[in-house]
Structure formats: C-alpha cells, structure tokens
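Hi everyone,

Forwarding the result from last night's run.
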Amino acid sequence: MFISRFSRCLYKIAHMKKFFITALFAFAASAVSLDAQTAKSLFWRSDSLQVEEIVSEQADQYKKVGHHGPAVENSHMALRIYFNDSGAVDVYSKSGRGMELELYKWYPNAADMENGAGCDEYRVGKTVGLGGIALWDGSQEVKLVATKGRTARVGDTKKGSYAEMIAYGVPYKGDTVDVSIRIDVTEKSREAVITATELSGQKVQFLTGVNFHEGQSVSCGEEYISVWGVHPADVAVNPVPVGAGLFFSGRTFPTVERTADMVRIISRLSSSVSTRVIAASAKEAELNSARRFEAYMKE
C-alpha cells in the first residue's frame, strides 16, 4: 500500500513538472510573438526566386522586379523602394497581425484582405512618398536619374532587416553623384530608419518628406511630419484611413515647406542624412485614429 501511494505521488510530481515546463515554453513563445518581427524581399517577377542583390545597367526595372523594387517589413508595415528614377518609398499597411510580405508579395487578393491581410492603401503619385529621397540643387528638386545603372539589395542585420537602392551617375550641379537609399527595420520597433548617402562622401542637399492628398489631416512640428487619412482608391477598392509620419533633426533639415502634395524638408549640405518613419492603419489596435496617431508623433 505504501508503495502504491508513493508511486501515485511520483506520478503527480512528474505530471506537475511536465505541466510547468509546458507552461514555461508557452509563455516564452508568447513573449517572442509580442516582439515585432522583420523580413525582406527582392526577386525578378520572371522566376519569383528570392535574391539578395540585383545589379542592373538599365536604371528602370520597375515593371520587371517583384513589388517594383526591394522591400522590407516589420509587424506593422512594409516599405518598398521603387526601382526607377523616382527615389520613392511606398507603404503596405497592416493590422499588426504578423509577417505578410513573403506570403502575399505585396498584393493579397480580395479574399485574403477579407480575412485580415493588409493592403497597398498608400498612393505615392509623383512624389517621393513616405521618406523617399531626391536631391535639391538650390532652386528645385532633382530626381535620382541614374545614368550608370542601379543596384538593389536586401539583407538581415543583427537586429532586423534592410532594403537598399543605389543610383549611380545622378546628374547634380554639373557633376554626377552616387546616392544610396537604405531602409532599416528592427525587431523591437515599429518605426523604420531611412538613410540617404552620397557614396563618395560629397556633400549634397537631400530632399525628403511625406506626401498627402486632399481631405487628409496634415500637421508638422519642428521635428516631425504627421499625415492621416484616406488615400485615393487604387489597389484597395474601399480604402481605410492610414497614417504616415516622419521624424527628423531640425539641425540637419532646417527647411520645412508645404507644397500642393507634400510636406517636404531640405537638408543642409551633407554626405549622409537619416530620418525615422512610421505607418499606421485604422485596422490596427494601437494607432488607429487621427488623434492617436498625431499624439504619437507629438510625443
């Protein structure tokens, strides 16, 4: 009888140990899932095979490269850099449910969107979009017209992922420059860092900012730009309000101007500049209204 009770006791201890180990693993998995993940994507549409680099003597591969250029993603948005002279950065908005770039390659179908997939709600138009890059020659915008080809890259870092586009031989003030646009996302932040660099170290004036459309809420402070509202219907048949924000250093970007379709900022003469960008959607749980989004930008 003593042996029987002892056996039952050992069984209960073993069972409880198994329960606590299982619970511990479940808690750990849950904690990991709360961290923002990152991903990247670059491929030719002809074969859809993921690559880390595309080097092209032809500067415009917009229609031949998947999602029109290198793309990078965190848990709340994906960003792509157009493989053409625009220097534009575009946004894929999400509800914050997880990684979608590899699964949908930027274009989920109607059924996917009905089941919670994100969408290309953002319309860049002829601007540089959200934090995209052009140059400024002292009197006008200079697009990144690459006369010596273009390179696209994606990769992983210790803390996340990146996408990069390099334009070679951009005419600028009687000379040519090579300009890199790089987007970095990390596992601990929903924001992304966009860095523009003149690769030889030559100092230029960079132009960036956030575009907007009629009816959207637009505000800016000394070091931020905030835009919230519905973009004109394009991929999304019934677009929802989305937010686009940019943080910048007022010392680096002393000029802030509002045009007909952009709040643009122009840098001092610099060889490299960085900004931080964020996108949000009415479909998400956190920054899902103009009030909440602007409050985040003002913090």
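Helices lie at 2-34, 101-104, 110-114, 290-298.

Cheers,
N.
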